[in-house]
């Protein structure tokens, strides 16, 4: 068996029809979610599929999970074509999509795992043993026989994780696996993925850039249905060496617009907090040369520079440069 994921010229267009009066069709919309993407994920690799909202990440994961049919192109999972051999493909993957909704809340954690184990054709004994093992890994032995509806949401996500691993599949497809988890548990899950699952082939999506940096061997950056950059996190960050990243901590509130007029400045992000302080992050061709103008621009808006620093570019800086959009949801450093 050829282990891993291979995607070639994959396309998907969603067609939606709005019906206004009963069955009378009034309008038709098409969304080109994937415009012909290529990538591979080998065994032992964790690849991050990243991109702004609507880029096509979930669509890709759903096609690979056999939940959505592509229009054209090819998607091969562990040697099986997801369109012509969906049953075989499905047996080799563990999927997380849609978070806690993918387990039965009226069953206990243990019952859920045994149920899904049986679906994957484990014998009753195998399913029981495997459920026990996974409940142990997740630290849920004591709660194993309580209904999932009485779990905390972090505990439910642990069962969702355990479910994806019940048949010990060689390939994992994780769509935003840590979305909405508290930081402590998100860290546990990331550690688990990196330490315990690294011999598998993993494709994951995330909006947390520090998570991508921590977990991914390679990143495929998707934007409007196309892959616009790929490489290791370090390679991608090196590509931004063409400009400096400068952060100014300011007392007072300033606006982004005046900074954009400074020669060499390409991106400006201003964040303010309630206590009359702001931070300005700029991409500028030559930070040292532009510094005087930057400081003047703060002062002319009535602000006072408390501190400035040249920063290492983050993955988010790379993506702003490539797509013109920020990927991170909120403050990724807090996650
Ligand atoms: N069932 C559907 N019907 C119609 N359009 C859809 C459907 N699912 C997704 N789309 C559209 O396809 C595009 C890609 O959506 P997709 O969910 O793959 O993006 P995403 O990268 O996962 O975004 P997000 O970061 O918000 O999760 C979007 O424009 C979306 O509106
Ligand atoms: Mg999505």
Q: Mind explaining what this structure looks like?
A:
With 335 residues, this protein is α/β, with parallel strands linked by helices. It has two domains: 231 residues, Rossmann fold, CATH 3.40.50.300; 97 residues, Alpha-Beta Plaits, CATH 3.30.70.1340. It has eleven helices and 14 strands. Strands 6-7-8-3-9-10 form a six-stranded mixed β-sheet, sandwiched between helices. Strands 2-1-4-5 form a four-stranded antiparallel β-sheet. Strands 12-13-11-14 form a four-stranded antiparallel β-sheet, sandwiched between helices. Strand 7, helix 6 and strand 8 form a beta-alpha-beta unit. The longest helix is centred in the middle third of the chain and has 14 residues. The protein is globular and about 70 Å long. The C terminus is likely disordered. The site of adenosine-5'-triphosphate has 12 residues, from strand 1, strand 2 and helix 1.
């Amino acid at each position: 068996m050829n282990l891993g994921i291979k995607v070639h010229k994959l396309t998907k267009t969603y067609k939606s029809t709005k019906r206004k009066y009963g069955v009378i069709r009034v309008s038709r919309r098409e969304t080109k979610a994937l415009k012909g993407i290529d990538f591979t994920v080998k065994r032992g690799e964790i690849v991050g599929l990243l991109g702004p909202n609507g880029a096509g990440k979930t669509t890709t994961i759903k096609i690979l999970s056999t939940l959505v049919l592509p229009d054209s192109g090819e998607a091969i999972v562990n040697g099986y074509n997801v369109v012509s051999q969906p049953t075989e493909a499905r047996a080799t993957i563990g999927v997380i999509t849609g978070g806690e909704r993918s387990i039965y809340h009226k069953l206990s954690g243990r019952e859920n795992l045994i149920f899904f184990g049986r679906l994957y054709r484990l014998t009753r004994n195998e399913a029981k043993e495997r459920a026990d093992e996974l409940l142990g890994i997740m630290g849920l032995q004591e709660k194993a026989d309580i209904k999932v509806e009485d779990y905390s949401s972090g505990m439910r996500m642990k069962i969702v994780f355990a479910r994806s691993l019940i048949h010990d599949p060689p390939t994992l497809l994780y769509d935003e696996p840590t979305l909405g988890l508290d930081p402590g548990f998100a860290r546990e899950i990331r550690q688990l993925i990196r330490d315990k699952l690294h011999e598998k082939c993993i494709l994951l999506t995330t909006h947390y850039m520090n998570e991508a940096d921590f977990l991914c061997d390679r990143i495929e950056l998707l934007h409007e249905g196309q892959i616009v950059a790929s490489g290791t996190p370090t390679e991608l960050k090196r590509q931004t060496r063409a400009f400096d990243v400068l952060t100014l901590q300011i007392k007072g509130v300033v606006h982004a617009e005046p900074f954009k007029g400074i020669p060499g400045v390409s991106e400006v992000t201003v964040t303010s907090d309630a206590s009359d302080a702001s931070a300005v992050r700029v991409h500028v061709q030559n930070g040292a040369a532009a510094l005087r103008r930057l400081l003047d621009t703060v002062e002319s808006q009535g602000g006072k520079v408390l501190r400035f620093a040249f920063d290492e570019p983050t993955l988010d800086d790379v993506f702003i440069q490539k797509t013109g959009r920020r990927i991170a949801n909120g403050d990724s450093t807090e996650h």
